[in-house]
TrEMBL record:
This is Histidine kinase/HSP90-like ATPase domain-containing protein. Residues 64-161 form the Histidine kinase/HSP90-like ATPase domain. The keyword Nucleotide-binding does not apply. Transmembrane segments: none annotated. It comes from the Bacteria. Gene3D superfamilies: Histidine kinase-like ATPase, C-terminal domain. It comes from Actinomadura litoris. Pfam families: HATPase_c_2 (PF13581).
Length: 181
């Protein structure tokens, strides 16, 4: 992880209906969390993939590569729900979008995979197994880090001059385009 982005731990689990936590909220130590545009903790279900897409689409409205960002969050959340303990009963996935030093940083934290780490699979012609390959192609940089038993997969996207994130709570003035699945 680069030093530009704050460590995020201890997100509050919420239901899908009231999922977003806008920028400007405080971190666990009570201080303002610089650079975080929003974060959401979702149930580890397939429905959460669509909710995460809408969450990111709303926060990054106006970003030139918005479709790439939305595709990457979709792949990362789907991977977390499919391949980690997040997809088990009472599992959760946390999505954080931050902006600093001319980049958006997307992070998806899962509940861990019994020691298994994310990896790009070799192309085998299968219908599945391409999620991290897609992330690697669309993001400027990507990687992962351990957070206790959890794994945080991150991806970064350059923000060009003249692009700016929507102020907290504003977005495009309408609901998410992506459906719940």
């Amino acid at each position: 992880m680069t030093g530009d982005f704050p460590e995020r731990r201890g997100a509050v689990a919420v239901g899908v209906e009231d999922a977003s936590r806008p920028a400007g909220r405080t971190g666990r130590r009570g201080g303002a969390v610089g650079g975080v545009l929003g974060e959401v903790t979702l149930p580890g279900t397939r429905r959460s993939v669509g909710v995460a897409r809408g969450f990111v689409r709303e926060l990054a409205a106006g970003f030139e590569d918005l479709d790439d960002l939305v595709t990457v969050v979709s792949e990362m959340v789907a991977n977390a729900v499919t391949h980690t303990a997040s997809g088990r009963r009472d599992g959760h996935v946390r999505v954080v979008l931050a902006e600093a030093a001319g980049r958006y940083r997307l992070e998806v934290a899962d509940d861990g995979a019994d020691g298994a780490l994310p990896r790009v699979r070799e192309e085998a012609g299968a219908e599945t197994g391409r999620g991290l390959r897609i992330v690697a192609v669309l993001a400027e940089r990507w990687g992962f880090r351990r957070d206790g038993t959890r794994t945080v997969v991150w991806a970064e996207f350059p923000v060009r001059s003249g692009e700016a994130p929507a102020p907290a709570g504003e977005g495009r003035g309408r609901g998410p385009v992506s459906g719940p699945g």
